[in-house]
Design brief:
108 residues; Helix Hairpins; mainly alpha; 0% strand
Length: 108
């Protein structure tokens, strides 16, 4: 079991955003290419994870889930949205049932 967290990964991504050379860091390269590129990569990885899940390939789903989480955190970094804000949002949603929370988000 590992103690590695999404917050750990977010810190690594932030450090690479601040100091890494895009020529030698994939993270820095993605961020240098802008929000649109980061969003497209996130979308591609989400589709690949979906395909892995549908094909019932647990090893592929595990790998693709890692890609999805990484690319989501890169996208959040590109938009300057801290993972802590996302976690607060999720925590707030746990205070009621998922169905009630989803219904509350619907616009009349």
């Amino acid at each position: 079991m590992t103690d590695f967290t999404l917050a750990d990964l977010a810190r690594i991504i932030a450090a690479r955003a601040a100091a890494a050379d895009p020529a030698s860091s994939y993270t820095a390269k993605l961020l240098a290419e802008g929000v649109e590129k980061c969003a497209r990569k996130f979308g591609e990885e989400a589709v690949e994870a979906t395909i892995a899940a549908i094909s019932q390939d647990d090893a592929a789903l595990t790998a693709e889930a890692g890609d999805v989480l990484y690319h989501l955190l890169v996208l959040l970094q590109a938009r300057s949205v801290p993972i802590a804000a996302v976690m607060r949002e999720l925590e707030g949603r746990t205070k009621q049932s998922g169905l009630a929370e989803k219904a509350a988000r619907r616009k009349p």
